[in-house]
């Protein structure tokens, strides 16, 4: 369990963050992940499998930890922070078909990533998957190890920081935003978790809007308690906008202040203040999400 936890923390989570995904949930020795694009999902999958293969070099086969990955592009049902539906079920069944250390994906993913990822695809034909009514055309993925070792080295932000070089990411084609940690204005350190929870909820809600590119919570929280120019943040995370704000709580009353900032100019595009009670907190978060989404669109 210790090595599994280490792989998740030191390999999986950073890779998911770099490719703009999110860990929906951990399931024993597995995980359910969501990405905004098929290219990001496949890139993250290959990079993770290569990282695991490198970590297993020199180990006794009985000590090696090997994963299978299934990828599918389809509709899902969002319920709170969880995902359900046909898209999840097909991905899960494809994972069972993948070879150890390998990746299996559906035709929908194959069509979306064609010519965009350094990989080769082996057409396995239409497979009858357990509890899936229709056969699913399935492809196995292969790749050159050196291609993905170089990719990981070039994109690892901590390596760039260690060499004194700022990593600059190109902006995605769709509206991109990072929700930075909100300041706790309550004067009570115990309210820090409450402020972080507000940010996490807003980030998750914005991430469910497919037309936006939203930086994962863990990447944005790297800037917590670290004053930094929003222009630098925009360049480092590859986003056009950041949302920053503050939370003040007194008794049952809550005040949330937010500002939407253009990272190219550092100018405030929109700001608002929300007052309510703890009973209104979910409504306040929904209103913030709706107004931020409207401003981005």
Core attributes:
elongated, alpha/beta, 4-stranded mixed beta sheet, 6-stranded mixed beta sheet, 10 helices, 297 residues
Q: What's this entry about, in short?
A:
With about 300 residues, the protein is of the alpha/beta class. About 40% of the residues lie in helices and about 25% in strands.
What does this structure look like?
The chain is an alpha/beta fold and 297 residues long. The chain has helices at 2-18, 38-56, 86-97, 107-113, 145-155, 157-162, 192-207, 217-220, 230-237, 281-296; strands spanning 22-27, 30-34, 69-71, 77-79, 82-84, 103-106, 120-127, 136-142, 176-179, 183-184, 213-214, 241-250, 253-262, 268-277. Strands 9, 10, 11, 12, 13 and 14 form a six-stranded mixed beta sheet that branches. Strands 3-6-8-7 form a four-stranded mixed beta sheet. Strands 1-2 form a two-stranded antiparallel sheet. α1 (2-18) packs antiparallel against α2 and α2 crosses α5 (145-155). The radius of gyration is 21 Å and the shape is elongated.
């Amino acid at each position: 369990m210790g090595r599994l936890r280490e792989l998740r923390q030191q390999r999986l989570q950073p890779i998911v963050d770099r490719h703009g995904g999110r860990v929906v949930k951990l399931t024993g020795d597995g995980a359910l992940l969501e990405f905004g694009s098929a290219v990001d999902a496949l890139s993250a999958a290959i990079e993770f499998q290569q990282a695991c293969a490198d970590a297993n070099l020199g180990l006794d086969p009985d000590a090696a930890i090997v994963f299978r990955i299934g990828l599918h592009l389809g509709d899902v049902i969002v319920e709170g922070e969880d995902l359900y539906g046909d898209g999840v079920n097909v991905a899960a069944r494809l994972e069972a078909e993948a070879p150890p250390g390998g990746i299996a994906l559906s035709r929908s993913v194959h069509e979306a990533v064609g010519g965009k990822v350094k990989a080769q695809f082996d057409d396995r034909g239409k497979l009858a998957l357990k509890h899936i009514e229709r056969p699913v055309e399935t492809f196995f993925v292969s790749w050159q190890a050196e291609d993905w070792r170089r990719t990981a080295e070039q994109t690892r932000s901590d390596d760039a920081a260690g060499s004194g070089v700022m990593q600059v990411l190109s902006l995605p084609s769709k509206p991109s935003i990072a929700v930075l940690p909100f300041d706790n204005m309550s004067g009570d350190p115990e309210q820090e978790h409450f402020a972080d929870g507000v940010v996490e909820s807003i980030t998750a809600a914005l991430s469910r809007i497919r037309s936006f590119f939203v930086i994962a919570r863990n990447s944005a929280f790297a800037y917590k308690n670290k004053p930094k120019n929003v222009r630098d943040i925009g360049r480092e995370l590859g986003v056009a906008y950041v949302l920053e704000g503050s939370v003040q709580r007194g008794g049952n009353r809550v005040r949330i202040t937010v500002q939407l900032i253009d990272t190219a100019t550092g100018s405030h595009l929109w700001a608002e203040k929300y007052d309510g009670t703890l009973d209104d907190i979910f409504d306040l978060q929904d209103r913030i999400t709706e107004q931020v989404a409207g401003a981005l669109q």
